[in-house]
Amino acid sequence: MAVAPSPPPPALERAPAAPTRTDAGAGTTLTPRATLLRLVTWSALALFGAHAWAVQVDPASRGAAWGSVIAGLVVVAGLAGARRLRGRAGTAAVDGLVVVAALLALATSGIEVRLLLPDRWDVMVTGIGQGLGGLPGVRVPYRGLDEWIRVVIVLGGSLLVTLSAWLAFAPTRRAAGRPLAAATLLGVLYAVPVVERSPESPFLSGAVFAALLAAFLWADRLRPDQARLGVALAGGCLLVALLAAPSLDGRRPLLDYEQLVTDALSPANSTRFDWSHGYGPLQWPRDGREVLRVKAQRSTYWKAAVLSEFDGRAWQERPGTGDGRVDTEFAPDPDYRDRLQVVVRNLRSTEYIGAGTTLGVRESPRLVRAGATSGTWRTGQTELQRGDAYSATVYVPRPEPAELRDAGTDFPAVTRQNLTMTIPAPGGAAAAPAGDDGPRQIVFPFWGVEAPTYALPEQGLPALDGEDRVARSVYGRAYRLAQRLKSASTTPYEFVRAVRARVRRGAEYSETPPAAAVPLDAFLFEDRLGYCQQFSGAMALLLRMGGVPARVASGFTSGSYDQSRGEWVVRDIDAHSWVEVYFPGQGWVAFDPTPAGAPPRAQLVDVALDPSATEASGGSGDPGLGAGDRQTDPGIGAAPEPPGVPQQGGSTSVLPVVLAVVVTLLAAGVLVRRRRRRRSRDLTATDPELLELVRALALTGRTPKPGTTLRAIERQVAHEPGADAYVRAVRQRRYAQGGGPDRGAGPDGRAALRRALGEGLGPLGRVRAWRALPPRPRLAFRWRTRRPGSDRREPA
After folding, report:
1. CB burial string 683-694: b at 16+ within 10 A, e below
2. Labelling 141: which of 28, 150, 272, 423 has CA 20 to 30 A away?
């Protein structure tokens, strides 16, 4: 009776799909020959893919490639041993093997062995999280300095290899491993680095991978007499592919996923800063977002920009680019030099973040060029972004107060440019003396030098009446204040101390100061409200008026120190401005006039200005962190962190989140598994061959109606010779009739049933039938004999 195509009846309640193919041999076991072939081909394919993955870092992690394959072989050996155990011992062995596999993957990725100990897992999890967060925008091969990005890249390959070994050899109820799933992971292992960075011979490399992949998938399935034919077919396919590949290789990708990922992840989560002063309400981000990680010998200010130009209202960066020459002297103390390792987190910046005077930047993925001010460096048009890392050599003097008192007044001529200011043009509230034709630049004489104060117009010759012009300008009272403080001081160092004390006296910290036409004058003499920009801007201006070279620096305070990882964690709320003052023989020394109670989280204690700060920092000569200067940090005994801001570099906040995610995933997995078990409880005794037959009928539009028997299906396909024999064998297996299956249950019977299923389905009928009932190249059809007592009664 022919199978007549007809619209399928209403679908039956679908049962969970069972495996549709079993391994050759004996159910869930492989023959020794098949096991050896699978092991050899897996090892070759995994090693080939691991070596491709290894070049994603520079220098290439060849050792990790070999280590990951060896770890996979250990997993295979452990699975073989676990199969010999039964009951709880077998379950415990498998659980232990999972832990061992994870540890092996971590160990082969370059993670320090000490971090694998349970008491160091928080450090490891935080580091891996940092590496994952830095991946968007990272270029391969990765040559950066962030060790955690390197570890995460290598770890990805190790996990793929280890998991593929598990899938390839871990037995299931119906098969000896999942080679197709394992091949998928090994395909990812090879494809990801090839897409990121094309090999020298891409077509040859791809052909080798394809050959190894075919060998892994089919070598253990072919009989010895089929091996030659299989090799010939695979070789022919590879030859055709090699000939066709060059013509199919396009210059532009159909989908530029790299740019999509970078645009989706990096800009939205990154922060930009405008370092120039504005003196209005503070506009810097204050979200507590991590922007940098810095490794250094000691804490300091991390400098992004120098504001060396006072334009009549506010401090600004000098326009243009510099020539890279330094504008400082160097003290012989070797402790003043340091080498920073900077990892960019959620920050986008054209300025390289350094410290003090940055002498050079190396190992950066971006262009390095000199900034407008000596000791600063910038990128080209491409910003630094998440995941970038570089090293910087810096000079940061930390002289004792006595050394500053004795520094003298022999200022280098190059520092004269830091004794200037601009008087506003006539008109408006900030007007210059009547009769001027434009803004005037004032040049003050060095401390201790008897010389006039010059006024340089935009055009024409310099005038010698600069002092009178300043005194009659809107900055007249600030100039008179500077001269009074200077007269009461005997050295530049005492003058610096006096200016800082006056700037702080009576002032209150506020991030919403009132608007003013002349902000710094209003801050000094009227409202006395401001934040770090007002404090540092006013101090630098007064110092220049007194003949001491000074400028404003902007960047970040040191941040929180992550002791477990030995690095400073800098957040956006650490953004800050301070003053740099020049001392002969020492160079530019940092001074901070902002009150200690200000929100910048890690404001450094100024030892040079306040000897008592040494006591506050525990007696160390290092500027360090003082008891009153870090209100928001734990362990200081002051106010707690602002809500939502992680402490101590994120170590104590990332771990609970990660653990919560892991626990949630594990709980979800347990619930899904229990639900599947509950749904399939009544099918545990059902034959896989029967489930495969029902599934094949459904896929070809012949879902059996309720009450349909196997005998009925057998009669429906009887018109196709051999098809009824296959169904009869399924029925005999189901009801243990006849002592064994019909001979027609072999490949010929399966092919006959496939032809019957494809009838009446149109041009694609055979394709649908092949999908529903795929062939089994070397299936021996050794169907298992039903256990005694399995006495199902066949329906009449």
Report:
1. eeeebbbbbbbb
2. 272
Statement: residue 147 has pLDDT above 90: no
One-letter identity of residue 373: T
The answer to whether the beta carbons of residues 296 and 314 sit under 8 Å apart is no
**Which residue is associated with the tokens 């990332």?**
654
Does residue 112 or residue 299 have the better pLDDT?
Answer: 299
DSSP 214-256: HHHHHGGGS-GGGHHHHHHHHHHHHHHHHHHHHHH--SS-SS-
The rounded distance, in Å, linking the Cα atoms of 226 and 40 is: 19
- Kind of pairing, strands 567-571 and 529-530? unpaired
DSSP result, 112-132: -GGGGSGGGHHHHHHHHHHHH
Write out the H or E segment, with its range, that includes residue 747. Answer: helix 747-758
DSSP letter string over 137-177?
Answer: T--SSB--S-HHHHHHHHHHHHHHHHHHHHHHH---SSSS-
Cis-peptide, bond into residue 141, ω within 30° of zero? yes
Q: How many CB atoms lie within 10 A of CB 423?
A: 25
| Model confidence, pTM | 0.55
Which of the given ranges, 79-83, 434-438, 776-780, has the highest pLDDT on average? 79-83
- Of 110, 189, 193, the C-alpha closest to 148 is 110
Q: What is the 3-state secondary structure (H, E, C) of 441-495?
A: EEECCCCCCCCCCEEECCCCCCECCHHHHHHCCCCHHHHHHHHHHHHCCCCHHHH
pLDDT of amino acid 636: 27
Asked if residue 513 has a cis previous peptide bond (ω within 30° of 0), the answer is no
Token readout for 183 is 């091949």
What is the end-to-end Cα distance of the chain in Å, rounded?
20
Question: Cβ–Cβ contacts within 10 Å for residue 664, how many?
Answer: 10
Show the CA angle centred on residue 152, arms to residues 151 and 154, nearest 5°. Answer: 65
How many Å apart are CA 551 and CA 539, to the nearest integer? 9
Q: Quick one: tokens of 477?
A: 């009272």
Most confident of 437-451, 575-589, 646-660: 575-589
Q: Among all chains, which residue has been given the structure tokens 């800050």?
A: 576
- Interatomic CA distance for residues 788 and 73, integer angstroms: 39
Rounded CA-CA distance 378/305 in Å is 10
Q: Which two tokens stand for residue 266?
A: 């990096």
**Rounded CA gap, 606 and 614, in Å?**
9
Q: Rg (Cα) of the chain, in Å, rounded?
A: 38
Task: Give 29's strand partners.
Answer: 26
Strands 560-562 and 309-310: unpaired
Give the model confidence (pLDDT) of 26-75 as tens digits. 345 677 888 888 889 998 998 998 888 888 888 888 888 888 888 888 88
Contact criterion met (CB below 8 Å) for 15 and 683: yes
- Starting from the edge strand earliest in sequence, which strands make up the sheet with 454-456, in order? 420-423, 440-443, 454-456
How, if at all, do strands 575-583 and 420-423 pair? unpaired
Buried b (16+ CB within 10 A) or exposed e, 724-759: bbbbbbbbbbbbbeeeebbebbbbebbbbbbbbbbb
Q: Which residue has the tokens 């492989």?
A: 30
**CA atoms of 731 and 420, how far apart (whole Å):** 101
Most distant pair of Cα atoms in the chain: their distance: 123
CA torsion through residues 150, 143, 558, 284, sign:
negative
Q: Taking residues 343-370, what's their average pLDDT?
A: 93
